[in-house]
Protein 1
Amino acid sequence: MDYTRFTTSSGQSYIMNPAVVSRRPWRKLLWVRQPYPDNYVDASFLSQLKRNLHVQQYSFWALSSDSTVIISHVYSVAILVSVFVAIYKDKYNPAWFASIGSFCTLVGYFAWDGLGKENTTSRTATAKSAILIVSTLLGLSPVLKSLTQSTSSDSIWAISFWLFLLNVFFHDYSIGSKKTFPPTLSTNLAIAAATVLASRLSTTLSVFSFLLFSIELFGLFPIFSRWLRSYSFVAHLILTSILAVVTEVGMFYIGGWWALGVWSIAILSAVFVAPGWLIALQKYKNEIQGPWDPAKPVLRSR
Amino acid sequence: MVSMDDDIGDFQNQAERRSEKSRRNNFHIHLPSTPSIATVLTHGGASISGARSVPVSSADSPTDENELKSDYLSIRNSQHDRHQYLREHIRRDIFLEKNIGLHSYKIGKRRTNVIYSYDEIFKYRKRVQTTIHQSAVHPSVTRVFWPTDCEPQSLEPSVLVGFRNSRSDYVVIAIVPEVDISRMIETLDGRETLEHLSGFASIHGAYDSSKLCVLGTLNFKIKHSLPLVVEMNSRAEKPRFRMQEASTAIQRLNGHAILNGEYGLKFGAMPFLVIFYERPLPRRLQYISFMPINLELADRSNFNTDDEDGKNLRSRRILVDQTRKHTVFGFPQMDKEDCINSWINEINLSHELGSLLEKAVTLTNVLPAESHSLKVRIVVGTKLLISRTRNLLSFLWSLLVMAIMWILMGGLMLYRVASEAVLRIIEWQPKSSIPALKDVSATIQQLDLRLQQACYWPIQYITLRNQKSNLFLKTTFHPEYIRFYNSLWLVANDIIIGAAVGSYIIDNRDYIVAFVDYCINEILTTGLRRTIEWLMDWPGGLKLNNELAAFFGELFLWVIEFWGGYLRIFRPYLPDLVYLIGLSGFIGATFPIALIADLISFLTIQIYCCYLASARICNWQLTVLVSLFHLFRGKRRNVLRNRIDSCDYDLDQLLIGTLLFTLLTFLLPTVLVFYLTFACARLGIILINAMLESSLALLNHFPLFAIMLRLKDSKRLPGGIEFDLVEQSARDDGSVGTVYVQLKPIALPVTAMFQQYFLLSKRIQRHYLSLRVIALLLTGQFVPIQRSRLYSLQYSMLPENRFGIWELWFRLHEFSVTVREEVKKKFALIISK
């Protein structure tokens, strides 16, 4: 065996300096028997290390304009909650909200139908499914009204809060327009939350109106807003600002000036402070790459 | 499974050898001695050793005397072969140690390893058979079976008669004192007398008559040329055996010792294995058997084999068969594999043949009558007179039997036709999905069982009668006999207990009626109503959906009220019904029990209906919830691949699905609470019914007769055999001289009698106390009660397909013909004298 022992007479092993004993240079190969001890570390060991290879440099305005996507979804949740509070307090006719929602949906549909080029579903199919949903809602409303009668309100608020939170987390915020839509889980979570909330309402009409409104808001509006964003960014900004105004009004209605202030601060910090913070944190980024990384399998995202 | 390891070892050994052919050659040349029972039982009874044999010296095998002594091994031709052989031999000895007692072995006072599972017995039997067979074929040891119960009283000189299975294998069946050897041989040669004496034609072919011969002598002073010479000084002492060498077997080989055949053994040096046995008395229906007696019918002993247990059993049997194919012994396979069975057969025959022989010998003594004195003539005359009167009496008896039989036959046929009609009605299934009447009601099931038993009895009786005349079908005769009388006993018992139970019921009719009344009014109507009202009103703080709970409550209340109304109509007839139940006790205690079980089922039909409805709803809701949950996550179940796939649903599907999912989730507790209430009620009823039905099973199937036999005479229920080391004597040179072994029949253990019950309890446990059942119950699926499975125990004493009317007629006819012929024969006997 051409194996040199690097052990002194006292039994300690040490690393030989390659300059002193001329040997073959060390190679980073496990399967080759080399004249070096097992714990030997060569100077060239980390030579192929790379840092922050894939890190992108963000621009502040790009980040804050992108954050409007998140903001607009949070707006729709806030709008739904405000509408629920309005109906629950019994101060407005619930049919109003349903009519406003339906009107906006129709406007949006025609805009989408008229301007969009890649419509795949026929109008009759859309109308058919709309009628189906509305009639199902009509049929189920009385049942839903009494669904959680024996449950206390607090547990319903807690359930709907968690469902909305999960919905916000699971929502598909990706900008690319070519994604298949809708993202199933977040839509379902939102609808479930709306159903649970609706079961607290007192009249069949309010249950129906609220559910219709929430379906328009969570089922149809995301499709429209996504299309609009890809169609024109300015239009998207306009829509977001309209939503912002509506939400501010709703917040004011729910909690007065105090709620309005908190809400505005939260939204403004999400749009302006959070991107700045992210950029400031970029300098701590330390991503290490090297030839030892295992190959990453490419998985289907959904 | 130590034996499996042995198999592997053998297999490896086989791999070492080049081919089968060379192995055989090896065997013939290099394996001069093989282990046997005798050899196993040396060394103080606890350890094992091979047979001591005389070394065959050859040029390249240096003999080490010390090693030989310690191992008791024979010499091999080469050193290498010898080592290999040593290994193999020792291993085989270990195997023998484990299996020496066949089913159980006993060393000293400790008995171990009693095996009763079919597979294992089968495997071990094969193994032990082979081993014993080897030792039978290889004359390394001379084996003598010695009947201890027929040693002559005063140890007068006697002649040993028995079977000579091979040159070194003798089964002594009779020790006949005060007889000349030549006369004995004559008697045996004139076998016609023997067969004539036996009075049965069946003695032909029951044994290999060429093997039956005079084997040797006991305490004989005169020189003779028979192989066995036995001396016995006192009855307390063990007999001493000596072998006389047959001159034909002696050859001179290599100028060495006198050798016996090709096996390289000195004839006189061969150790004796004396196996003492007590002759089983056929008149008392005793016999010994290698396999435990099977109390069930063969095709019924493992229940029906198309269910899960049967499949397991079958696959295990296939495995065992395959492993047996891999088994390699260092011996060539012999033609006569059933060596052990032939011994057992001979031992079973011994008493009968021995008494026949004694009769024959005395007959040859007596026949030349004129040469004897008056005294002898008087004795002979009285004997003749007695036999004649006996003949006459038996003739009259059989005449009577015939007359009764003719009357009975008509009655039997009439009964059979009637019962066939009833059975047809009971078993009629309009469609395969609709259960037959007997599967619905316990009473009708019981009726069916009794009718089938009654149909089977005549056939059983005829079979018994036919087999009784045949001496040598004991192994099939005895179980049949036990089965027949067991079922008769059980029915008689049933009727006795039933009379007591029935009269008790009739005497306390008023109390019982009051109790049933209370049950109907308080528990089945008011109690149920109260429970449902409680369920409708947020039971135990559970917040149910008010509307749904109200709906369910109303529905079930309506069902209960409806049935309660019917029960009120039925109320006035209750005393009569109880009286009827009491009366039915007089045809067996099983009938009141079955009627009570049916009554309980009848009174609780409303609970069954409610259970069924709520289970359906619950199960439906759970199924829908599961698939909607998949939709909620954006997945769906792929039935084709049996997995969960992701799926892009349409928006309207999603919306409606989510709505329904939320709805059903909130309604689930309500449905579940109602379902569980009725499921618990149903379980309680099933438990009560199961208790009643298991008591039915006990009454119908308890092995009463077998247990009685076990207590009275355990030899009638053989469960195998075992060998006990009694004593061993050494020769002057230190080698093994004679080993005395006692052959003992093992009685069938009680656990084997209750085998069916164990199987049944295991099955019930598997089907009703498993997690699967709990899961089924919780998800509202139907938990099947397989009555037919539960009842397979009850029918295990009956053949699968009952004998038809024509079959019965033919059998009866045949039977009558044989009886008539018997009568004719007896008549001829009387006429002739």
Protein 2
Amino acid sequence: MSEQELPGLLILDIGGTYGVQENIVALLKKHFCLITMKEFLENKKEMSKKIQSVFVSECRPTVDQELLESLPNLKVIGNSGVGVDHLNLKMISNFGVKVTNTPHAVADSTADIGMALMLASARRLVEGSQIAISPHTKYFAVDWLGVEVSRATLGIIGMGRIGYKVAQRARAFDMKILYHNRKQRRKEEEQAVGAHYCEKMEDLLQQSDFVMLVVNLTPETHKMIGKKELGLMKPTATLINIGRGALIDQDALVEALQNNVIRAAALDVTYPEPLPRDHPLLKLNNIIITPHIGTATVQAVQMMAEEAIANMLAVLNGQPIPSEVFPK
Amino acid sequence: MEDQKLPCVLIDCIGEKHGVYEDHAELLKEHFCLITMKEYNENKTILGKKIRAIYMWYHKPVINEELLQSLPNLKIVASSGVGIDHLDLNLLSRYGVKVSNTPFIVSTDTADLGMALMLASSRRLVEGYQMAVSPDTEYFPANWLGAEVSGATLGIIGMGTIGYKVAERAKAFEMKILYHNRKQRNKEEENAVGAIYCKKIDDLLQQSDFVMLAVNLTPQTHKLIGKRELQLMKPTATLINISRGLVVDQDDLVEALQNKVIKAAALDVTYPEPLPRDHPLLKMENVLITPHIGSATKKTRLLMMENMTESIQAALTNHPIPYEVLL
């Protein structure tokens, strides 16, 4: 099939700071005629009609009203990643455009990062590594201690695909697992990982040594962890966030960490990303922050592109769509 | 409580850099009359005869022949942790002194740390943290990637209590698990964690994405991993050491990392500890080092103290010693 017969796919850029990396570009080119934002803007008249799909990766390109109005043949926004809080689903739907995400591709790597953050925080891994290499270190103090992960209680808020994979991993550490979710899981699913349902989030917060946020960001979950929730947690507890930054009231978190209301926090996500360089969270010593690397593995990036491609092609070919996202 | 009724136990000191923790000392004093090295040195003639046990916390006090000669009633040395490579077992045996360690209590925390190091190294966690907090960071680069742990191949060298617990954890990450051990484990144990035995260490080294060392240090395992073994590993592989620094030939490791013979290393143990501040391992980007914290949790250290107390009490009342180290 010649390139012109392939459906047009808009991407931000090839390579560069925010662009799509080379091997993913090669994958996309097998099924689409790629058009970068630059090419589109330089030749709107011709390009606009060709574009039937947009590949959104790490929130780029921005899909706004202006863009949607200029793409008359747009059928689908294929998002790489599972979170779609950066997309205005209602607005996009009003243009008759579908939105798809990649829930399967992200699950393992994101669950892994949740476990990595929990272990690193509990065992003070970052601090320890700094001591190990510091020019000032003369000896290793024997009374330098962390807290146990094995046999502790993990409270998972959000027991979707990722939350369940976290539970599977945590079970192997003999952790006691509590979870809070919109819907209770089936008995077999609960028993397979030894998870106990907490209908009230408060019960989970009060009993957990580690609280892990694994929900998506919606108006209902926005700032779901605030001063009240942090106050309910044990003073020895750790908060881990692998969902979205805005799930947490960040000012309340700063206060809680400064006053030892909770022991520590480990965040793969913040609001915004990156945080302003003078943000108080950056100055605390009982926090680990990672730069939103939940799906930052060679394997996950490849799998997300493949899942996005499959979804977009399904829309364009009028076939059942594996992972369509609907506005509420 | 009358001090004389409690058996006398020699310790290095309380608090300070290497001493017995203050809260542990309070609990120990309920069972023992604690004598510090300082007190002993000030009154050797009288105290020497009273001391019946040594509570060795993190390799201190140091035991030599001179000390053993001055403690005629010494029955047991209770050593913290599972490693006993720092003790001269032959010397102690000649003086009829028993030895105990704390073998099982450290296993879970050490296995947890092995997993923590594997995940942190593979996902570039420390690097990522530095980027997240650096004053120079303006944006998070798009194509900054680590490697997946889930579904990868883990080769465990040393499938004792700690190695097996690592396997249990790794299984939940759907890792393929290979292991090399002096003895093959029985079928049920292998099946429970999906572990495949590699009689030849070479087979394990060639197939693994992560190689984790969980052996104890003996003359046989000294420099077990050297140039040859590192070259057998994949260039994309990571070496993780939660055993003892001397199990690895450190000079060979430095060379292998510099020449990208392997991808990375994550070490909770080195030789010596700490490394000299000008050691090349400290400057390498693809090396993660932690300050020997395999058993460094409050709960575990308390349980270690309790184990040691039990062993001392058993030795002094001529009962079987729960955690005796036999030659």
